[in-house]
Amino acid sequence: MLPDDERSLERMRTQLYAPSTSAFFSYNKVPWELHVRKEVFSPGEKFGDPLVLDLVFRQIYKDVMSNTCIRINRHECRAMRNKL
What we know:
Blueprint: H1 4-11, H2 50-65, H3 74-83
Organism: Priapulus caudatus (Priapulid worm)
Pfam families: MYO15 (PF26570)
Protein name: Unconventional myosin-XVB-like
């Protein structure tokens, strides 16, 4: 059974912001990196929506076939490539 705070996370839905037409500034040649983390799922989690299942599979497949994935190490990549 999930605690109340985890249940509220399960019910949470997000929306994309509409594209903006206002001016913006960007940086180039910066000494820092920004890493954005994708949504996380647990191995035992059940997905009822076929679209969600497809998106999770595509994320795993892309990470496993990429040589530059930072989420899993080379040993895990090799093991997953053998399974796929």
